[in-house]
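Appendix B, Record 12. Input sequence as logged:
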Amino acid sequence: MPELPEVERARALIERAGLGREIVRVDDADTYVCRPHAPGDIADAITGRKLTRALRRGKAMWVETDGGEGPDLGLHLGMAGRIVIGEESGGDPIYGGSGGHPDEHLSGNPAWRRFTLEFADGGTLVLFDKRRLGRAVLNPNLDGVGPDAMEITPKAFRERVGRGDAPLKAKIMDQGVLAGVGNLLADETLWQARLPPLRPAGSLSPEELDHLRKALRKATRAAIANGGVHTGEVIPFRRRGEHCPRCDGEMVRAAVGGRTTWWCSVEQSWP
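Logged structural output:
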């Protein structure tokens, strides 16, 4: 599913191709995607306005209208959503999770166009989502969403992550602690940092926490640049019978925080 890097690519697309364009029509008829709004509520609120700023915290994304004078439009990608503007798109790297081509949206089922903005210049912004788990909502509530994983300071990272008995992977995936880290980014980050996913978060030293934060930022920047979390160095080796691409140790699997987790049995062993 889209994690911070995929959402950032979608946000950057809106920033690059969607800002400053006047909205003349809104298709908000999908009552599940646009809940709790009734059909026409979002249209009434933003028709005639312009998108002026694209923002993100973790996996949450929203767009200001009319320089903040209008309502914010929250756009959530769900598990397999993409933002499509013209011939460009950003979001789920393998559309629908089915192994299809990332540009499958160009010829996909029109019913998968869950929410659409039409601009005065004739262009559109579409939330395209085969699984119908994305959201479009006015003035999204970000209460309970922690600091962004790319923006958090070293001090705040140490204070928020480095406490408690929860497994380290579960801690960095807790969106109330740190926003934006999903399953693949967590495995890639911990592998890069050579830290065990099962190690209690509160057992890390300040130096180890600083190292982990740097590894997270490095892994996230690489995923943004390369097209998504699926491009991580260890991701192709998250399967039975594979070995660590760095030391050739056996890759092992377990559930951590309810999520399938892979790590190197040599460099990330615990205890």
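The first strand starts at residue 23 and ends at 27.
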